[in-house]
Automatic annotation (TrEMBL):
Protein name (Swiss-Prot/TrEMBL): Tyrosine-type recombinase/integrase
PANTHER family named among the record's database cross-references: PROPHAGE INTEGRASE, PROPHAGE INTEGRASE INTS-RELATED
Family the UniProt entry places it in: Belongs to the 'phage' integrase family.
Organism: Bradyrhizobium hipponense
Pfam family, one: Phage_integrase
Amino acid sequence: MPGKLKPLDVEREIRPGKYPDGDGLYLIVASVTSKNWNYRYWKDGKQRWLGLGAVKDVSLKDARLARDAARLRVKGDRGTPGVDIVQEKRAAREEAKAIEIKVTLPTFEQCAEIYIRERWPNWSKKHRAQWPSSLKRYAYATIGKLTIPEIKPSHIYELLRPIWVEKRETANRVRGRIETIIAKNVDVDDRDFRNPAELTKQLREKLPRRPKRVVQHHPALPYAEAPQFLIDLSAASGIAALMLRFLIFTACRTNEVVDARWSEIDRPSSIWKIPGDRMKMNQDHVVPLSEPALAILDKIRDGSQGELIFAKPDGGMFSENAMLAVLDRLGYSHVTVHGFRSTFATWAEECTDYPDGVREAALAHKYKSETTAAYQRGQKLEKRRVLMKDWAQFLAGSNIIHFGEEG
């Protein structure tokens, strides 16, 4: 069946529009210099337009032949299913683009190595150990060789699923680290981007259900027994024993004391400034030092050689188990080092009238309200100084306890 268009019509037509020739072939005129052939077809209920070339390159006869060939591919022949030519070409372009991206973009593992290298100088020993090892062990096998655009939530699910229940904290940290590295390597102005490592409702529901967390408190020494323990501890020799005494007088965490540096001590002001990268809440913490705490530092200072306050004889850092060994030697293996924070907290709550804000600030706990947190950090130092003095007096066996003022 001959078409509707004539070669002269094709040559002379300059009005913008779509001019049918028949069986899905159209001459599409955009302007005097823009005339193209298109084949319109329907596939799976969707209308498609397949470009067959420009009029200046493709004659009417050749356009009809190209249309006929396309029709055969769309409809299929002799049991061969038809294809969606437009979708096929689109998929080919996307595949080519993906290959190009893969060649030019760094892999997730490379992005992670750059991120770690940039932050290494400012990281604590703990961060330096955990970041590379956790990503290598749990992430790289699944997403290490993928580029950032290739990573999907299903990849994150795949790597988290084996450890989501059995290694709860590790899984949380690994997911957070992956999310951070991905966020670091995307365009900040890309409003359509959604981080595949984000803990969305879909991902949380897909992962295995975790049993309800049972809070296990660190076994603590009753505060009434603390003065006697300090007497027993004073008879113990060695840096680890002095480190434990300092921890008790400051009510700080084990890792904060183990990694304490001389550069953090302001002796004239009697304070210890712990940088945020060593704190659980990633915020700088100022500890007022009582006289017994200062006396411990003065005793160690005489023989100290390096930056580390509580250093081993070879200058290295003690493990966090060193103070546990001291407890065991003294016959107090039934309590933990961290439990002395609970001992302090219970004493402060039951034996003093210091407001919650002062007690919580002394323990460097996080406040639910950011406004409250800023106020406590800025206004409670001197009140905490008196609190720590009272704590030292209590540990020394004094029955005279100063009660903090309200407010």
